[in-house]
Fold this protein.
Amino acid sequence: MACLVGALPRAVSAQSYSEDAVKAAYLYRFAAYVQWPQGNAANFTVAVAGADGVAEQLEKLLNGRQIQGRPARVVRVHRAQELQDAQILYVAPPSPARRTLLEAASGQPILAVTDEEGGLAAGAVINFLPVGRNVRFEVSLPAAERQRLKLNAGLLSVAARVERSPQALLCASLPQGALAACNNWPTLLLASGEQPRSLLYRRRRSTACA
């Protein structure tokens, strides 16, 4: 279990741990690589829809822990009104409120995470992907920008795929001295100091968790 809650791995086998435990650990670790706009919420809230197993694993994992200096808690949600205090939203495919919840999260500082084909197109910032027997994820930078979230390059470097905006791709093609002309978009990466390189980040070498 130490592997799951340590540094964000490139991939985690669903054979070594239950799939629910793997996804719960990812949701917990994502928070360390995301910067939210300053707020005054007393708790750091992870909202879960349509996945009681993931919620139960998160409750065990977050018991007594803090995220970004605030007590962490898990709430099960079914309606858009219940997202008011959420920083992370995980919507599983069986949730009948999936579309409503994602629409409610759009434009809000909520890290929306899905678990289905086409999840990024539906509005998620992160979408889980099954890769063989492993669980990996893809990231949408346009969605993160829309949600006013800053993503650390450490998160992007272990993603299976990073979706960029057309402007970001244009910036990546410019010489280093011309990157200042693209200052409207790279706030997503400023915290890391890394500059955009390509549509798909190179995969790092496998870790002990891969």
In short: The domain at 2-188 is CATH 3.40.50 (Rossmann fold). The chain has one domain: 2-188.
